[in-house]
Design brief:
transmembrane helix; globular; mainly alpha; A middle domain of Talin 1; two-stranded antiparallel sheet
Length: 362
């Protein structure tokens, strides 16, 4: 049974990558669209498997960092490529995608992870010191990159001037790098799972540590799976755009759907960690993904803006700023005690549902 599972996680990413290469840039019939959707789902599950193998080998918080950075780097490449190929009408794509990533991670992933733990154990325990530092960094990056452009006056519209964009790119990358140093070197213990008294050891904890060869193979397959996930999301995007347009929904919904697809591996990995009572790993994944999404996307589009046509609109509207502010207030109140209950999970999930509803009905 284990051998079959391993073979499945090896074969599916390869098949997904082959299908991506064969269908890239082509119009697809409905049957092929359905097949690609199945391969996309399989690639997501394979990515989660290989990420967990790597995490088991390198330990925390490096394991969470590997998945968050890998997904984000490929997501950034997708955003830039879509902006280059889409022309001026994609001026809000980076903003919509990054904002969606922040709301999905800080409310969706956090909410589902806390719900999983609190339904099982009543209380979700985590390290408030490390999680608080991560939340503060996400809040700072979000405000500098998504809120300030609405109020600056050097450029017309909710946009940065070239100098302001360059400054935002430098500080975003610097803050992200400083956090990674804090998380992995100087204060690594702040981001390790909290031991829960009376919790039995799980199969994952009893399992032998994977060899270096196995971990390297999983790293390669993880990258293949993630490239396939993001690439197939782009291939499926015309179908999504057509469905959104025919339903009369706002164009921003496309970015939300693509963000949901791209963040599926992290969501599944976070919930599975929560089922093992390792909610700190879930929070590392959620906040680390939000931070990497901003810290890597803003510098990338700052460089790409040199040859991009049309304006680059980063500033959020009033409705989204209210949701963002409420998210950080609620997240702070969740993080400070270092313990969360079913109530906190419900509040985060309501905020996530509100984001999705307002994306459909602004």
């Amino acid at each position: 049974m284990i051998r079959n599972a391993v073979k499945w996680t090896v074969v599916v990413p390869g098949l997904a990558l082959i299908a991506l290469a064969a269908t890239w840039g082509r119009e697809l019939p409905p049957v092929l669209v359905a097949v690609l959707a199945l391969l996309l789902a399989g690639a997501v599950l394979a990515a989660v498997h290989h990420a967990e193998v790597i995490a088991h080998r390198v330990g925390e918080p490096f394991g969470s960092l590997v998945l968050a950075v890998a997904v984000t780097v490929i997501e950034v490449a997708l955003i830039v490529s879509l902006m280059i190929s889409g022309g001026p009408q994609t001026g809000t794509l980076a903003r919509d995608t990054v904002f969606a990533a922040v709301m999905i991670t800080c409310n969706g992933i956090v909410g589902f992870s806390l719900l999983t733990v609190t339904l099982k154990r009543r209380i979700a325990a985590f390290n408030a010191e490390g999680t608080g530092k991560a939340l503060a960094t996400v809040a700072t990056l979000s405000t500098l990159s998504l809120v300030l452009p609405t109020f600056t006056t050097s450029a017309q519209g909710p946009a940065f001037s070239p100098g302001q964009l360059a400054f935002a790119a430098v500080v975003s990358l610097a803050l992200w790098g400083l956090f990674v140093l804090t998380q992995t070197v100087r204060h690594r213990d702040y981001f390790l799972p909290v031991e829960v008294e009376g919790r039995p050891m799980t199969e994952e904890e009893h399992a032998p540590r994977p060899s270096a060869r196995t971990a390297l193979a999983s790293l390669g397959l993880l990258l293949v799976a993630l490239v396939s996930v993001v690439g197939l999301a782009k291939v499926e995007s015309p179908v999504i755009e057509a469905a959104v347009s025919s339903a009369g929904l706002p164009q921003a919904v496309v970015g939300v759907v693509i963000a949901l697809l791209v963040l599926l591996p992290e969501t599944i990995a976070a919930v599975r960690a929560a089922r093992r009572d390792q909610v700190q790993i879930s929070l590392n994944l959620a906040l680390g993904s939000a931070m990497a999404s901003i810290g890597l996307t803003i510098p990338a589009i700052a460089v790409a803006s040199i040859w991009l046509e049309g304006p680059l609109l980063l500033g959020l509207g009033a409705t989204h700023m209210v949701l963002l502010a409420l998210t950080f207030v609620v997240s702070t109140l969740t993080v400070v005690p270092g313990r969360a209950t079913l109530l906190q999970s419900g509040v985060h999930l309501v905020l996530f549902a509100s984001f999705l509803f307002l994306a459909i009905s602004p």
